[in-house]
Amino acid sequence: MRDVFTALSSPARRQILELLRERALSAGEIAERIPLAKPTLSGHFNVLKEAGLVSADRQGNSIVYRINTSVVEDALAALLRLTRREEVE
Amino acid sequence: MRDVFTALSSPARRQILELLRERALSAGEIAERIPLAKPTLSGHFNVLKEAGLVSADRQGNSIVYRINTSVVEDALAALLRLTRREEVE
DNA sequence: ACAATATTTCGCTAATTCGCAAAATAACGA
DNA sequence: TCGTTATTTTGCGAATTAGCGAAATATTGT
């Protein structure tokens, strides 16, 4: 399971997540919206999958990706901790 | 100004931020707590500074680093957006 | 001016990442 | 089975990164 923050460190991958925020999209639909070669995008999908940030389901010919918001929320919680000074020690 | 998520993608840098969460620390104090060579840590400090995640002040001989929570909060807000489906468009 | 302490910059190597084109795989419909 | 469409895997080069030791820089105290 790859590190979530590593997956989030690429602008291209964050852009993919932004697109998936609204609705699930196939690899091809994402490729129509992001100016990168399909193999390049496929690599990014893999990183996002390994981090648990998206899940993929085949639907006929296409593979549909959807965002996994609960994993985003975990990252959120980790960041939130940094904004709060330790209260009990 | 370097990308905040890129800066957060390194476990070593997140560990530095965790230490700074409680209180500001000098480079040497951080080096006592993290098993990496000082030049390596110095490089990480630089990345964190370029991302605006920490600020540095010389105090006599030492350089004291403190976390910049407002920039962490900006990253937080960017992540939070990903957890909410677009409502108005 | 000198020695001691704290930190950074330099120069290097090994490993990783990002992009692509070409080839391989998977599912569908005729 | 064959052809088409959708996506991934492979293999590559260029660029970046993370680590280190040695040397350089900055500050303090004598």
And the CATH topology of chain A?
Answer: Arc Repressor Mutant, subunit A
In angstroms, what is the radius of gyration of chain A?
15 Å
Largest sheet of chain A: 3 strands, antiparallel
Instruction: Give the integer mean of the pLDDT values of chain A.
Output: 94
Look at the structure and name the CATH superfamily of chain A: Winged helix-like DNA-binding domain superfamily/Winged helix DNA-binding domain
Structural shape of chain A = elongated
Strand order of the largest sheet of chain A: 1-3-2
Helix content of chain A: 55-70%
Name the structural class of chain A.
Answer: alpha+beta
Report the top-level CATH class of chain A.
Mainly Alpha
- Structure annotation, total helices of chain A: 5
Biggest interface between protein chains, with counts per chain?
A: A-B, 27 and 26 residues
Which series of helices and strands of chain A comes N to C? HHEHHEEH
Number of domain modules of chain A: 1
The tally of beta strands of chain A, per DSSP, is 3
Assembly form of the protein: homodimer
CATH architecture of chain A: Orthogonal Bundle
Gap from first CA to last CA of chain A: 31 Å
- Unreliable parts of chain A: none
Strand content of chain A: 15-25%
Can you give keywords for this protein?
16% strand; Arc Repressor Mutant, subunit A; 3 strands; DNA-binding; alpha+beta; three-stranded antiparallel beta sheet; 89 residues; 5 helices; homodimer; elongated
